[in-house]
């Protein structure tokens, strides 16, 4: 099933197999993804392809400066006939959500996603409403240097399991993409490879993937190094530790193994940690690359021998 899902994804989202692998890892680990890149590189196509492939209910929130929190979470409407308030669902009530251009809306509206992403529920007028399962947010944002953007706060960034960049396709991939466009191949034609219930089942199996004490110590050491790194004002949070464990389990499951290897941790560490780290003013002035520093820390951590 996993192989069939990956094949389907790469058929409609041409190229960038590493991006496909990572978004599948996040789905299996129960995490959310932030895609940051310039417009037109296929971020929306990727989200729609995933939803179609796993037969999940797909919803899109197009964030703009005037989008309100109630548009996301839903609102209570007064029913004059019954004399009671009834809940009108917001755009968040879908299994896979494309939060498009999340950094173009106000911080208050961005914050309306926090509870949903962390706890799988929303609270409207004191009442709690559970979100459908599986639930996953795939948010997109333009680089912060673009006009009309609001940088996401650290608390919001920490809710995303991974931050990925799609990038431009290679010459061969772009030609394949053009050929598919000419022949009329669209994401809506994609068939489901598995059901939403099967995704829930796979997520439970991911939790059963064995993580040895040595690998846990290795993960903890990597996180600790980010906190001691002098070029970072803010290191990785305890939530980052938990996400790194679960992402490594999902990576092992994706490779059809029932145990986590240190290489699984290395494969997901940078994408899981880099958006949680904040450089010092001096490091920013010297245009320090977070990924290079983080890669160095991962290589510096002592690998367990088992």
**How are strands sequenced across the largest beta sheet?**
2-5-8-1-9
Q: How big is the Rg? A: 20 Å
Q: Write down the secondary-structure element order.
A: HHEHEHEEEHHEEEHEHHHEHHEHH
Shape: globular
- CATH architecture annotation of the largest domain: 3-Layer(aba) Sandwich
Unreliable residue runs: none
- How far the N terminus sits from the C terminus, by CA atoms, comes to 31 Å
Throw out a few tags for this protein.
306 residues; alpha/beta; Rossmann fold; Helicase, Ruva Protein, domain 3; 5-stranded parallel sheet; 14 helices; 16% strand; globular
Description:
- By secondary structure, this protein is of the alpha/beta class.
- It folds into 2 domains: 2-196, 3-Layer(aba) Sandwich (Rossmann fold), CATH 3.40.50.300; 208-300, Magnesium chelatase subunit I, C-Terminal domain (Helicase, Ruva Protein, domain 3, Orthogonal Bundle), CATH 1.10.8.
- 46% of the residues lie in helices and 16% in strands.
- It is built from 14 helices and 11 strands.
- The strands form 4 sheets. A 5-stranded parallel beta sheet has the order 2-5-8-1-9.
- The chain is globular and about 70 Å long.
- The two termini are 31 Å apart.
What is the element layout, followed by pairings?
Layout: H1 2-12, H2 17-29, E1 33-36, H3 43-53, E2 58-62, H4 69-73, E3 74-79, E4 84-89, E5 96-100, H5 107-111, H6 114-119, E6 121-124, E7 127-130, E8 136-141, H7 154-157, E9 162-164, H8 171-182, H9 196-207, H10 213-228, E10 232-234, H11 238-254, H12 262-273, E11 278-279, H13 281-285, H14 290-300
Parallel strand pairs: 1-8, 1-9, 2-5, 5-8
Antiparallel strand pairs: 3-4, 6-7, 10-11
């Amino acid at each position: 099933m996993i192989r069939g899902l990956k094949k389907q994804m790469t058929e409609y989202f041409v190229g960038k197999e590493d991006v496909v692998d990572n978004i599948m890892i996040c789905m299996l680990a129960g995490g959310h993804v932030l895609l940051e890149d310039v417009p037109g590189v296929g971020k929306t196509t990727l989200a729609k392809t995933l939803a179609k492939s796993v037969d999940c209910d797909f919803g899109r929130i197009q964030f703009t400066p005037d989008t309100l929190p109630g548009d996301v979470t839903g609102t209570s409407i007064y029913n004059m006939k019954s004399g009671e308030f009834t809940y009108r669902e917001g755009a968040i009530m879908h299994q896979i959500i494309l939060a498009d251009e999340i950094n173009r809306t106000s911080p208050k509206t961005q914050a309306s996603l926090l509870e949903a992403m962390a706890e799988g529920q929303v609270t409207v007028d004191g009442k709690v409403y559970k979100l459908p399962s599986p639930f996953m947010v795939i948010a997109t944002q333009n680089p912060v240097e673009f006009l009309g953007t609001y940088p996401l706060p650290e608390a919001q960034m920490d809710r995303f399991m991974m931050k990925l960049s799609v990038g431009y396709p290679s010459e061969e991939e772009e030609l394949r993409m053009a050929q598919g466009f000419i022949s009329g191949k669209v994401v809506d034609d994609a068939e489901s490879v598995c059901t939403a219930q099967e995704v829930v089942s796979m997520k439970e199996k991911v939790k059963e993937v064995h993580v040895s004490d040595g690998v846990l110590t290795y993960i903890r050491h990597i996180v600790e190094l980010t906190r001691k790194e002098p070029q970072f004002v803010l290191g990785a949070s305890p939530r980052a530790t938990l996400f790194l464990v679960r992402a490594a389990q999902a990576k092992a499951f994706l490779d059809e193994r029932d145990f986590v290897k240190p290489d699984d941790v290395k494969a997901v560490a940078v994408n899981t940690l880099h958006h949680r780290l904040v450089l010092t003013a001096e490091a920013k002035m010297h245009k320090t690359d977070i990924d290079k520093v983080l890669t160095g820390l991962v290589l510096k951590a002592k690998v367990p021998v088992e």
